[in-house]
Amino acid sequence: MLEIDIDRKRYADRGGSPHVALSGLNLQVGDGEFACVVGPSGCGKSTLLNVVGGLDGDVEGRVRLDGEAPGNGVGFMFQEPRLMPWLSVLDNVLLVAGRSAAAKARAVDLLVAMELGDVLQAYPGRLSGGMQRRVALARAFVIEPKLLLMDEPFVSLDVPTANRLRAMLVELWQRCRSTVLFVTHDLREALALGDRVCFLSGAPGRVVLDLAVTLPRPRAADGTAVLELQARLLAQHPGLLAGLASGNGCAPGRDDG
Amino acid sequence: MSTRSGANDGAVLRLAPRRARGPVRLRLPRSDATLRMLSLLAFLAAWQIAAAVLQSSALPTPATVFGRVVEETVSLALPAHLGITLMRVAVSFALAMAIGTAIGIAMGRWRSVDVLLDGWLVLGLNIPALVTIILCYVWFGLSDTAAVVAVAVNKIPTVIVTVREGARAIDRRLLQVAQAYRLPRWQTLVRVYLPQLYPWLTAAARSGLSLIWKIVLVVELLGRSDGIGFQLNMFFQFFDIAGILAYTLVFAALVLLVEAVALRPLERRLNHWRS
């Protein structure tokens, strides 16, 4: 069980004046649950992940994973692939997996399963954006994480590539049974992936709606079930989604299906 | 490159150099090693011609100098002095790189350290080598320690400046990856942090070595009774130009060798992923 209780998270913005990013944010995620967090840009979604992932300790509040502070066994996938350019694909994955023979076998199996078997020794700079994300995904899963934190990992990819990566993610998650906290501003992505979608308010961010998604899997981000649910949600909570839509161009209400 | 003048049309500009180069292009094996060898031979030829024309004791012929190299080598004088000098170079190089890297990283990483030490750094960069050498001999006595410290002190500021630049350019986002996955400190340093510094470290090492060679000789000339610098001073007293050139030649050859078999391959290996 992941328990997040953030009373307040402040940081100094570029001008140096204090800025409250999160306030009164409480969230519990059950073991093996896939929770998506949706909110407008600048509402503190990335800040939330950084706090949970231990990258930002300067916070009033606490985060507990099974009653303890999250330690080893946390995977993190960032908005950019963030691979070490001087390490080969395999070494990038082994960097977090350790040097044991078992870890190596696991890394190779995972990379081969993700159709990266031909580029094990290649440097990330030679790979396409989609392949780099796949390596980052493999890096996240190779440690068989108890908790996986994902910060809009599939932005700026073309639609088929992003859909393929989402399908891979769901497959790996179902096999690994990790608890996932997935942050996105794309409502359809959240509805397609999550067991649950938590909506954040604008800054300072807190949870304003907690929605269980019971659609059967597999779901496609552009499938009718997801689109219908999204339309229903839009009708029910126009205020909430108006807040979302004011974020940026990737408004969930837009119709490009 | 030289055909820019007069050609205003883009297409002409692009084609002209190729045509112009065509007839004069030499048909030679184009490997780097061949070119390097050619340049060396050209140097020797120029030297020989100059010596033959001048007929002066101030410029002995290559043959005379090589004769001296053999003579000094057989008598073991050259290897002994060379060994001592190399030792001093190695120790002060290692010292300068280690201390300079540590301070450079600290200054690049923490602003307060940067502000605190910046004045000293500017001072260090601008003190003439001769001053530090004299002061070290005065303060620490005419010893090897003083010699090595004097050389290292001369080099440390330039290492700091280079490494600080690198430390400022460190990609924090990659360090966050290490932090998120709870990599041990040592692994973070060796596999995530330092690889980002390698280009700066190799640059500091190469420029460092070339500077240190030169300063070590001055240090030896001023206050040691052995080493290449001391020998050069002796030859100078006796106006023994062949001796000076013989020692210089061997020394320079060694520097080239270290560059070629150690530094350049190391740099290539470290930056392999960029190609």
TrEMBL record, chain A:
InterPro entries: AAA+_ATPase, ABC_transporter-like_ATP-bd, ABC_transporter-like_CS, ABC_transporter_ATP-bind, P-loop_NTPase. Transmembrane segments: none annotated. Keywords: ATP-binding, Cell membrane, Membrane, Nucleotide-binding, Transport. The keyword Plastid does not apply. SMART domains: AAA. Residues 1-227 form the ABC transporter domain. It holds the Pfam family ABC_tran. The keyword Zinc-finger does not apply. Signal peptide: none annotated. It comes from the Bacteria. Gene3D superfamilies: P-loop containing nucleotide triphosphate hydrolases. GO terms for molecular function: ATP binding. Belongs to the ABC transporter superfamily. PANTHER family: ALIPHATIC SULFONATES IMPORT ATP-BINDING PROTEIN SSUB 2, TAURINE IMPORT ATP-BINDING PROTEIN-RELATED. This is ATP-binding cassette domain-containing protein. It comes from Aromatoleum anaerobium.
